[in-house]
Amino acid sequence: LVYQPMIDLLTGEVHGAEALLRWHHPTRGEVRPDEFIPVAERSGLIKEIGQWVLHEAMREAVRWQVGGERYVSVNVSAVQLRDETFVAQVEFALRDTGLDPARVLLEVTETVLVDEIEAATTSLSALRDLGVRIGIDDFGTGYCSLSYLQKFPVDVVKIDREFVDEVDGDVKRSSLARMILQMTSSMGVTSVAEGIERPAQITALQLLGCDVGQGFLLSRPLERDVVRAKFGAAVPVGQP
Ligand code: C2E
Ligand code: MG
Ligand code: MG
Question: Is 62 within 8 Å of 236 (Cβ atoms)?
Fold first, then answer.
């Protein structure tokens, strides 16, 4: 896992980091998650991988607790969300690592919500009852009706890179990002802009009231040890 910092667009403070999976293949080199996650989903292996990711990311975030109020954001696949034991897995990982549930953000992609509205709502509510936060990933790409947002127990909306890319363009091109941000702010939902690459995007997002930013311009995904050092934590007592 590598971790990409999520940064407050007003203060520059680091709020947390998103855990992103990497596969160092012995002969193929680094395989991107976009390539292997769909395969793992089809084979069912995503359940084991996802469980490992959850545990590993939470274990890591326990080390950050010492340095300040930071959360870890974990991507959850549709297959995991559909798994009846998923809520119990999250509960177990929280208990086993001792991480404060308020420091966990679970990212679910928008398409999952659209395709499986009933099942998703039930598991998301159960997860939220554990005290973890729920984020919608890649927002804007999944034809999610805006009214869905009111139905879902959602804390964070991550605006897809496609729309963040246009945010510093003319009025027409930036309209989608603007509309999403108006909606999140009126609903009291935290907004995160994904894939920020240009300074002009930051200025535009600040003007539109976007809360948090993520992207290569702010920071690339970082190795575990770099994040540990950055998040300024001494190793908590009792941790390996
Ligand atoms: P995502 O969750 O939307 O993650 C954001 C992706 O955008 C990451 O790609 C990140 O490295 C990349 N990114 C960040 N900033 C920038 C930028 O400024 N410009 C550009 N061009 N890209 C940027 P990555 O790590 O290759 O992950 C791709 C997708 O794979 C993720 O999209 C997520 O859907 C999935 N994924 C990654 N790790 C996991 C995991 O542990 N479990 C599951 N189920 N899916 C994962
Ligand atoms: Mg994500
Ligand atoms: Mg995304």
Answer: yes
